[in-house]
Amino acid sequence: MRTPFQGLCSWCLSRRTFIGAGAGALALLALPFRPAGARAQEISHGYLSPRLAAFFRKLPQKMVQCQLCPRNCEIMPGERGECGVRENRQGEYYTLVYGNPCAVHVDPIEKKPLFHILPGSASFSIATAGCNLHCKFCQNWEISQARPEKTYNLELPPEKVINEARKTGSLSIAYTYVEPIIFYEYMIDVARLAKAAGILNVCHSAGYINPEPLKKLTEVLDAACIDLKSFEPKFYRDLVGAELAPVLETLKTLRRQGVHLEIVNLVIPQFNDRPEAITGMCAWIRDELGPLTPVHFSRFYPLYKMLNHYPTPVSTLERARELALKAGLKYVYLGNIPGNPAESTFCHQCGKMLIARTGYRIGETHLKDGACAFCGTAIPGIWKKPQVT
Ligand code: SF4
User: Fold this and answer.
1) How far apart are CA 86 and CA 138, in angstroms?
2) Among the atoms of ligand 1, which is closest to the Cα of residue 72?
3) Which atom, in ligand 1's list, is nearest to the CA of 75?
4) CA of 190 to the centre of ligand 1 (A)
5) What are phi and psi of 260, to 5 degrees?
6) Which residues of the chain register pLDDT less than 70?
């Protein structure tokens, strides 16, 4: 039987799908999400909140160059960058989405997916409109490919995000659903306050960001779940409209900076399921990021511009997992197939089950102070509950 999430989501849900998701979600906060005491006018169609951008340089004739992501857009006065949420106003560069998310939900952390952080905990999740990528298979295209004046946005400045996270008992704030880099200034300000309050910061990103803003982000980021969409540059060019190399650099930087890292690979039959490519990707992860890096192979469902393509056969995902294990990776999960044994976590040393999962539900756990309760081996991840103040 299809769950409400199947066919809709590789791991995260748009506003549309969340409204339809019903009982599968930890808490239903479909937009317009209204924090306690919010006035009606705080939720509006096309609400914009211009704020000076953090990374750009001025060019002659009032042009600017955005330096946030590898696109390095050069923008004429009155125009916007590729992501549609940054605008040149008279030679100054502005983000238009500071403090105005269009998606606000409380999710289980498993939905990011982050399987090695505080199992079953709530994550206060936010996104604005816009994205710097144009994936033909995007699960959240209704907001990622929209301009902010086309979505219903909420006036939610950083202080309010922290308050709502506290009220909902969330142990983390997740920057997710679209590429969070495009709301970088908002994310950084929320993350700083969250850190001070003892709340973890996690993001689900495609990793398409320039080195300098990334380095600054790692100062406040606890964990990242990065989409490694393929290990073939052609796939990135044809289906994503971007380059693979900067994503690999981002992964290496996150590892070097000590940010907890998990990787998602959405397996699309005939496009990125070649065994040689999967083996090559896993060998790279093993050598550059370490064999204990959790990897999630996720099932593709036809969406957006790939409606004429069929869902990933379960056998294809199981073969990908076998190839990853053979390459030496120790924590390899399958996603979007609720009930599959590969949703659970097994100790890389003794092989016993540590965390049982079915979909986003957590069953028995056998972790003791971040170690396997059977053999005592330390398990990579963040297991200690933060003290939220
Ligand atoms: S963040 Fe947006 S405006 Fe800036 S370089 Fe990337 S796509 Fe262009």
Assistant:
1) 21
2) 5
3) 3
4) 20
5) -60, 135
6) 1-43
